[in-house]
Amino acid sequence: MLDHRITYHVAAPQPLPLQRLFVGKTRHDAVTVLPRLFNLCRGAQDIAARIATGTDVPAKLSQTAQEEALRDHVLRLYVALPQRLGVSVDMPATWAGKPDVILTHAIGAIPKTLDDFQAWMRSSKGLAPIFAAIDAAFPNRACDTGLLHPATDDMLFSRAPMENSVAGRHADHPLMQAIADHYGHGPLWRVTARLLDLHHEPEYRDTPFGAIVTAPRGVYGLRISCETDQITDIERITPTDHLTTPDGILERSLHILPDPSKLPLLMDILDPCTPITVKEANHA
């Protein structure tokens, strides 16, 4: 029997030359410039730069990062995905800084069982039409990546395949485990994690491996070495780096993407923080 599986070519943009931009500069330069240079998840970037340079993290910065993450989830769930699916859903009138309002509007409360989750998807309540459309678009465990290694501090900078994603952050939640068992570690599993993440407060820490900060797409890492006040080395790692790594989330998802027309929807769900080009390579 011929294998008609489609092969895809993935092209990610070249990363900015951080060594050339920052080596020889000061700690203050890193704290000032990095969040502006990478302005998605700016609060998380700012926190990481401060931790990596030994600079104090103001309490209000954590609140800023949490508000940014909430906005990221709301825009993905209520704007980007409905537009892609051609499904209309109402958005709460006042939601900024109010995760309770969003969660109640979206789903009421997090279902305790898979049966409850499926019953909600069959309803027309909140975001149920979006989740039902995603379920229909990726049937039969389509784009199931399997269980990847979690994004642990000691592994983060290795760039090995791992589940550096918002879904990975909530993989141990009972609903996520039930969805993974029934539907696989696929698009429905990944988008459900955004509901669980609405109340997530940014976590950040200085580790022997570098500064680690949680962000809307997963975990962000930054390490900066200095002599006196001068930067001698710098390295950053993002969820998108792990998304696009060989045998990572994107490659595994594409390997069992049954319908090429669903590629734009898949990319909207995976949500890379930089433009990623994916094209059919051949029809092997």
Automatic annotation (TrEMBL):
SUPFAM superfamilies: HydB/Nqo4-like. This is Hydrogenase expression/formation protein HupK. It comes from Marivivens niveibacter.
